[in-house]
Amino acid sequence: MQKSFSRRYRIPLFVVFYAGVFAALALLSYFVAIRSTAPQHIVSAKPYTFATDFTYIDLPRMAVSVSGNNNMVHMQIDIALEVAKKDAPILDGYKPRLVDRLNRFFSKLRPSQVTSPDSLPWLRGELLKQVNDADLPVSVHAVWLQRFIVTQPTAVYSHLVISPSLPTS
After folding, report:
1. For a tag site, which of 20, 102, 112, 127 has the least CB within 10 Å?
2. pLDDT tier at 168 (50, 70, 90 boundaries)?
3. Residue 75, φ and ψ in degrees, nearest 5
């Protein structure tokens, strides 16, 4: 009797199985099609900025003396700020505030922080942080050290981007 049952229902079970597989695939493709044609939230891209969209604002030359641990260091610093061209006129009115903030920052440094050649990348990052924390109405993209001269009474250490002529004493 079992042989006759399996032979008797073999073909209908086979047809039902294949029909079920095709129905499942059709249902799956229907849900995928609905999901892919649903309206997506489009994130608006930022407008592109090109290198020509930026300008440089020169700050006045700063002369700062730093002392610590019986060591005195004198620094001459020329800084340029990279800002968007449309923001350059706005930033001109904030130069005194920026120079004051940077002078205070430099005066808090230790001589060992500015005399090593490895200090320049760290210093550029800290200067950018100080400038952007100054409550300016514009964003400063980069800080460029045009001149950074560190002198001690016994030796001269210079980290220069633009090499000026140094007096030989």
Report:
1. 20
2. very low
3. -125, 140
